[in-house]
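Case study B.
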Amino acid sequence: MPLLTTIAVGGLQTNCHILTADGSPECAVIDPGAEPQRVIDAVTAAGLKLRYILCTHGHADHTGGVALLQEELGGRFYLAAEDTGYSVDPPDWLVSALGGFTEPPEPDAELDDAETLALGRSAIKLIRTPGHTPGSTCFLYEGMVFTGDTLFRGSIGRYDLPGGDGRQELQSIRERLLTLADDTPVFPGHGPASTIGEERHTNPYLSGRV
Ligand SMILES: [Zn+2]
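Model:
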């Protein structure tokens, strides 16, 4: 399996990322939001050992597959403490839109800023980016950044949901993501990939045009 495999899961097409490591059978899964069986099958078929389940934030479309994935394959589940209540008892319309939601378990560990999680000989670095939710976190691995619902190609995450804060979200993006190199590939929680440079220069939310 390549270093990165992305599977779009559920009715909201959440990008679920499987990260592998050179020379190691370990893998990490970011945002198994729905359809956990597809993720289980991909990890199992590749003969990988699931070490971490990482959620960029607590919304149900990013956490809905965690419980079954962990039950089947193990792995430590990380979610920021601020976001742990966000997918408890989601509304019915959301559950049916997601197509397969199970309430996530309690995280095995909370996510601290700048913490690194070893994966093979490499490491996943945490970047806390509050705004979309108070606990929103991005992950940097092998030069790629996984931005959840904080930064999309050509857009940013909504901040009108409970706990959202638009000013804080823009500050997080400017101070913690746009400080990465222009050629850093960006893999958002929904939709197509981009680069930091492309977003810096063309994202209307970041160039003051909105
Ligand atoms: Zn979200």
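The helical segments are 36-45, 60-63, 66-73, 92-98, 166-177, 196-202. The remaining cases will be described in the next quarterly update.
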